[in-house]
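Changelog-linked ticket: pyridoxal-5'-phosphate example.
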Amino acid sequence: MLTSIKAQSFQESIIREMTRHALTHGAVNLAQGFPDFPCAQELKDAACRAIQADVNQYAITWGAQAFRHALAAKTRRFLGREVDPETEITVTCGSTEAMIASLLALVDPGDEVVVFEPFYENYGPDAVLCGAVPQYVPLRPLGRGQSTEWAFDPEELRAAFGPRTRAIILNTPNNPTGKVFSAEELEAVAGLCREFDAVALTDEIYEHITFDGAGHTALATLPGMWERTVTVNGMSKTYSVTGWRIGYAIAPPALTAGIRKVHDFLTVGAAAPL
Ligand SMILES: Cc1ncc(COP(=O)(O)O)c(C=O)c1O
């Protein structure tokens, strides 16, 4: 066999494969979500200016200083939390890289990682690549049609935690269900993380894309969670620039130190002019 056991144990991305088929056959693409409209002119102009100004060599591995300071200001505004851009922010190649770099930095082979399912498909291969053992907790539909709510059974969630649990991946607002985890549900997750001394990796890429008055709450802002949470986010969806591959991980300094090392050896850094 030419490929590793790891590479054999997951399939190529279904959603990205479907995009290739849709492009080949001119089909409507219901598989991969990305904006089919241009990103803001200001962004395009700024990117062109940066390239013309010769910002074309490696950025600082964990991200250009001005960008990290802007992210800290944004985090203050939306999460109400002071974040140190020098020690708590890592800019990555999309939130996709932020997630796997964080998992590789925090999870050892054999550790268990709790994942709600259905889930954004990258989390499965991410866990395999880390040698982690995923523990799936189902989100079940309550109701039908537009009023469908997705919920987990708190007892099932508790049963997924144990002595080998190292982390939980939480994606809110959630792809693919659209679920926004309630304050009560977030507290249930936080309580188990504290009880089992687990870290939380939260994918918050849809933080600004909520409907019907639903508000986004970052798990990291709950009591006792800042020390044990990596908040993963990115520009792709909010700014309609999925192809730029710009994301970031916010985490306390001790966790960020590990994430930055892994990120450095995975990709060196994100695209400097972007
Ligand atoms: C939940 C979720 N996380 C992450 C991503 C990918 O984000 P990025 O482009 O920042 O890698 C997607 C893209 O569909 C997504 O749905």
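Closing comment: Example verified and attached. The longest strand covers residues 165-171. The mean pLDDT is 95.
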